[in-house]
Amino acid sequence: MPIIEKVIDKLIKKNISISVAESCTGGLIANTITKYSGVSKIFSYGIISYSNKAKSKYLSVSKSNLSKFGAVSKEVAEDMINGLYKNEKTKICISTTGIAGPNGGTKFKPVGLVYIGIKINKSNYVFKKIYKGKRLEIQRKTRDFIFSKINQLI
């Protein structure tokens, strides 16, 4: 059984609710979750908060964190899962913020840089990853890492 299917099956069997706040993955994680039958029992909602304005408005991302660290940062990824939890109180909250490319990278924040936030049982984890590849490959690698990590944590 592929890891994603295994995780979804575990979440359903254990009745563990999940919600997502996506930026650089643009809905890929929500799309992946909703491909499986029975997820309506555990999948609460997903938000694509691509702009800084949306991150602040819908996820209560700190404007000072956005200006001081930028949207692609550990601080913003953590604000996103905290805002998601505040809105929905699911047992697992996921956030993604990064630079999927092909443009937008800098010396300090290259294409492929992704911060992944996971809140599980009220504990926050933020992971920094740098992936190689084209846009969709970076998004898929991010998704695959998330499901692998959730599998370890639940």
Overview of this protein structure:
Helices cover 44% and strands 22% of the residues. By secondary structure, it is of the alpha/beta class. It has a single domain (3-153), classed as Maf protein. The mean pLDDT is 97.
Features:
single chain, 154 residues, alpha/beta, Maf protein, five-stranded mixed beta sheet, 6 helices, 5 strands, 44% helix
What would you say about this model in short?
The protein is α/β, with parallel strands linked by helices and 154 residues long. The protein has helices at residues 3-14, 28-33, 52-59, 63-69, 74-88, 135-153; strands at residues 18-22, 43-48, 92-98, 113-120, 123-130. The protein is 44% helix and 22% strand.
The number of distinct structural domains comes to 1
Strand content: 15-25%
Share of helix among residues? 40-55%
Report on the biggest sheet.
5 strands, mixed
Query: Could you tell me the number of beta strands?
Result: 5
- Count helical runs: 6
Uncertain segments are: none
Q: What is the CA-CA span between the terminal residues? A: 17 Å
What is the overall shape?
globular
Give average pLDDT, whole number.
97
**Top-tier CATH class:** Alpha Beta
Strand order of the largest sheet: 2-1-3-4-5
CATH superfamily: CinA-like
- Radius of gyration equals 15 Å
The CATH topology is what?
A: Maf protein
What is the level-2 CATH architecture name? Alpha-Beta Complex
Helix and strand arrangement:
Blueprint: H1 3-14, E1 18-22, H2 28-33, E2 43-48, H3 52-59, H4 63-69, H5 74-88, E3 92-98, E4 113-120, E5 123-130, H6 135-153
Parallel strand pairs: 1-2, 1-3
Antiparallel strand pairs: 3-4, 4-5
